[in-house]
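ok so heres the complex, two chains, lmk if somethin looks off
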Amino acid sequence: MKIAVKKFGGTSVGSPERIKNIATRLIKAKKQFPNLVIVVSAMGATTDNLVKLAFEMSPTPCPREYDALISTGENVSAALLAMALNGAGTPAISLTGLQAGIKTENIYNRAKIIKVEPSRIYDELSKGKIVIVTGFQGVNHILDVTTIGRGGSDTSAVVLASVIGASECDICTDVDGVYTTDPRLVKNARKLDEISYDEMLELASLGAKVLHPRSVECAKENNIVIHVRSSFKDSEGTRVKEDTNLESQRPVTGITLNQEQATLSILKVPDTPGVAGVIFSRLAEKNINVDMIVQSINENKMNDVTYTIDKIDLDVAKKISQTICDDLHASRIEWDDNIAKLSVVGIGMVSKPGVAAKMFQVFGDHKINIKFISTSEIKISCVINKKDAQQALQYLHDAFELDKH
Amino acid sequence: MKIAVKKFGGTSVGSPERIKNIATRLIKAKKQFPNLVIVVSAMGATTDNLVKLAFEMSPTPCPREYDALISTGENVSAALLAMALNGAGTPAISLTGLQAGIKTENIYNRAKIIKVEPSRIYDELSKGKIVIVTGFQGVNHILDVTTIGRGGSDTSAVVLASVIGASECDICTDVDGVYTTDPRLVKNARKLDEISYDEMLELASLGAKVLHPRSVECAKENNIVIHVRSSFKDSEGTRVKEDTNLESQRPVTGITLNQEQATLSILKVPDTPGVAGVIFSRLAEKNINVDMIVQSINENKMNDVTYTIDKIDLDVAKKISQTICDDLHASRIEWDDNIAKLSVVGIGMVSKPGVAAKMFQVFGDHKINIKFISTSEIKISCVINKKDAQQALQYLHDAFELDKH
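and the predicted structre for the whole thing:
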């Protein structure tokens, strides 16, 4: 059974009209792909509104109830889309995470999918129905609803594509593909035809919001081509796939700007073995995602340890870091949430040296101070002052000539 | 394990503030009743808004998807209440119909509960948690969500009370009890301390919106006392229970006005045996609830058959009736949705004759034309013109002196 998987994001199902519009497009698509599995997010601002309600109940909403609450957004959009299709004479059925057989770990808010039992999906497809699965949610071993983290509907779609043997997964969204950088910030940003998993993974992890990084990881592991494309027109978007020949000659593929991070430092940590292990395992225990880590030797074998985290985790991370600071007899903690991280990404930089040098040169030419640097094989990230960020993005985009094919 | 069951309606959980208010009241109640099972409806207008969305998708929304959609309202309010309780330091958990073990027949929109497997409820109670169950919903044999009809949360609460061995079930609502008639329509309407199941059943069936008739039936069958009371204050409300001695001396207990019905007539139906069976079984097949039935002999052994139905069913019922009319070679159909039904109810009328006579006299004195009459042991209903309805209600309330204890 050849099955096509398409995921529609929150903007695409953001109003009754848009849902009906998607239904019309799906009825057309079914002629080409008789077996369609659709994954939907919640309508527009629904999840945000539910989150707001949750925080009106408690400053720290119970995680289980939080998932029970916010998962309802996807139930609503899935049921509405199924109604629109059925109403137009095309049989369709909505399935919740539970009904679609999506099993996750037994944690809340950011559970991982561990297994999919798709028998119900096959059943319904074999009855000629378009199957609409709620993204973002699954159930744990006692059938409590879990969610897999914001943006997780992309991951739901890729996991389903993999389980049911689809070779490609359409991620339909309100942009028409992946760009060299955010086109709202840089006017001459250019849409890419293809991008490799690794580049997309870097871009997604670095804050390009078009795809959730876990969905890219998952696609890479299972060799699923992700086709990022517009929900509203038929034009080709950007294919995320195995290292492409087509454009791999370019040293830099894209640039991202992340303004949602903060830095935290623990100063004068005694330099004994295992100290870094203590710090980062204790942050990990509390589910704090640490991004860049810089350790610099101070005096008298004292280290300053600085790391970047998501800004929303700052309050929690401050508390943990203060305890770590006390326990390790370090001097004190410091933080800065007025930063931005600029990253240039390109699989080509492996074979083309000088990308880092050029990036630093651009900053130097414009007197922009670099606070931290972090590199991987295909990425160079610099943390700078937030006020310089947008200008710096344009300088880099121009310097690497990303507007040119 | 002694367990108290309390149900809160949509108005009672209609805003974040109200939910927190209910949470505060429950924390107090838990001191008196350590084992609390709470049943909640959807917040305020949520269900109506979801219904509106459904009809924007299709004029005849797919029943399965309709249930999948509107059941989310209860999921939201249950999770929010659990969060508010947990946030205030009182352990609580929300359970969906599925998780609470509520199994229904395999029909949608008005399924009956056939079984409750309350092991999860007991589990959570034994952990000291307040258990919050979503009203109005269950699951069928393939775990698809079903709903049990509007107002069904009352039934959910009574069924749960019965299954877990509670002797009383609090139905907490925005009125403080059951009145002799709608106090918004009749200023001197009086709150009743007690009312019998049979009277309440008549009142509920006749349109007194304070309790769903199925919940009363269910309470009667299982001998559960329903305590209708305010969500917002501790005062005693009205107890619905086995035939009471206290007030059974009164001939009339209450009067209802139902303006949500319409009449349908099939004219000149040939008078052959089995004709009524055909008509009403075919209406029943389409889940049309027929209330009053009047058959009058016309000429040449032709009958006019008239029946009242819920106004929302009128369009569907018209279509079915037209087909029946054609099939039976009857003359034509007629309908009227400009009617009102007034009913006086009282267990005392069994032993006190003259209630019907007095009712007709009141109508006669005020020149109000009676279109149909229907009686039961404890009820007399008259269908009149809608324009006379509210005035007639006041005349009857005065004539039977219902404002006096």
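quick notes: Residues 4-174 of chain B form a domain with the Carbamate kinase fold (CATH 3.40.1160.10). thats all i got rn
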